[in-house]
Design a protein that fits this description.
With 163 residues, the chain is α/β, with parallel strands linked by helices. The chain has helices at residues 3-24, 61-78, 96-113, 126-136, 151-160; strands at residues 28-33, 37-42, 47-52, 82-86, 117-121, 144-148. It is globular and about 35 Å long.
Length: 163
């Protein structure tokens, strides 16, 4: 196994072990998992973790809309203050009409529900990253958002300033 491969796998394994340990203490709840998205909630940090899978490249627009509606329902129920979105396997390009819909359906209500910060782990697909950024910039939101190359940097930023 090459060193380049081992280091990211090791970091992900360490993160998973912390997550598993937290589950034992019931701090992290698995909300739902499907072929496209996985949702977890850290009660102590009031942070929603959204993991998008490599199957997202096969999603239809309607399936994407269903995932966004599920996400909104989760935000309503759990009221996260912070959201960590792992797009490292996300491969769905959000067209401009859909960007506006995401802003109206998920982002504006999430802001009203108390979401303050969203950290995105970047997708390897530049077009996917651009479409996500455009969706975030669709309206004047007070939600802080930032893109990161890895999950650790994203977590550090989310936890850098507590409310």
């Amino acid at each position: 196994m090459s060193k380049k491969f081992f280091i990211p796998v090791k970091k992900h394994f360490e993160w998973f072990m912390r997550k598993t340990e937290a589950k034992k203490h019931k701090r992290i709840i698995t909300i739902t998992e499907n072929n496209f998205y996985q949702f977890y909630f850290n009660k102590k940090e009031k942070c929603l973790y959204v993991k998008k899978t490599h199957f997202t490249g096969e999603m239809t627009e309607n399936q994407y809309r269903e995932q966004i509606i599920t996400w909104l329902k989760i935000n309503i129920k759990y009221r996260p203050r912070k959201i960590l979105v792992d797009n490292s396997a996300f491969d769905f390009i959000i067209i401009p009409e859909l960007q506006k819909w995401v802003s109206d359906t998920l982002l504006k209500p999430s802001q009203t529900l108390g979401v303050r910060k969203i950290a995105f782990v970047s997708s390897p697909n530049i077009f996917t990253n651009v479409s996500i950024r455009q969706a975030m910039e669709e309206e004047n939101l007070s939600i802080e958002f930032k893109f990161f190359p890895d999950i650790e940097q994203a977590r550090e930023w989310l936890n850098s300033t507590e409310e």
